[in-house]
Amino acid sequence: MMISLDLFTRFQQRLAAVGGECYLLENLAEAAEVIAAHTALQAKRLVVPPKFSEYDPWGEAVSLLEAKGIQIEEAQSPASVADAPAGLSHAELAVAETGSILVAENSLEARVVSMLTLTHFALVRVDDLTSMLDEAGERLQQLTQVGPNQRHYISLITGPSRTADIERTLTIGVQGPKALCVLIVKDWKARS
Fold it and tell me: Comparing C-alpha atoms, which of 177, 171, 190 is closest to residue 31?
């Protein structure tokens, strides 16, 4: 798919404005390079949702990262994920208007990867980069429709976790990741 560079630039600017980082990458191999080289991977440990290696098309990232010496651990419980240096999941949608990603999972073990790791890496298909938040409504209706593809844990994430007290003192990462890195992948199709 051809992506409007302007659309990606808008998303990147909005995400950067709230403290996140974003990359437009050709394929999953480039995404693995960015993840493996990131400062959050100094311990060479990355938490992924259960059975992430079976996710189509993102599962290929697991073997690419393992080939770079990254230890992949599947999330078992919130306690096993809490304060892990880094986690990798995927997002259903990225919204340029707000710099947000839409994460939708069916298990708590998968969901906590984007909630409790110190750095959250999110893979997004370039086809799923939209311009306006209104476009997310359609996808949200699809994801919540009762049936075999229904998702139970859905969040719209805009940048790293942040909170402020009554005196407006902003703190990053108190109730979630201190860093969010969105990897928008152009050629996301898994290789045979």
Answer: 190
Beta strand 129-130 with 93-95 is: parallel
Q: Which of 106, 90, 95, 125 is nearest to 12 (CA)?
A: 95
Q: Which residue has the tokens 């098309």?
A: 57
Rounded to a whole number of angstroms, the CA Rg of the chain reads 16
Distance between CA atoms of 18 and 191, rounded to whole angstroms? Answer: 35
Buried b (16+ CB within 10 A) or exposed e, 53-63: bebebbbbbbe
Instruction: Read off the pLDDT of residues 153-185 as tens digits, 9 standing for 90 and up.
Output: 888 888 765 454 555 554 444 556 788 999 999
Q: Is the pLDDT of residue 9 over 50?
A: yes
147-177 as b/e: b if 16+ CB within 10 A: eeeebeeebbbbbbbbeeeeeeeeeeeeebb
| Pair 128, 161: CB distance under 8 Å | no
SS3 content of the chain, % helix, strand, coil (to 5): 35, 30, 40
Is the distance from CB of 139 to CB of 93 less than 8 angstroms? yes
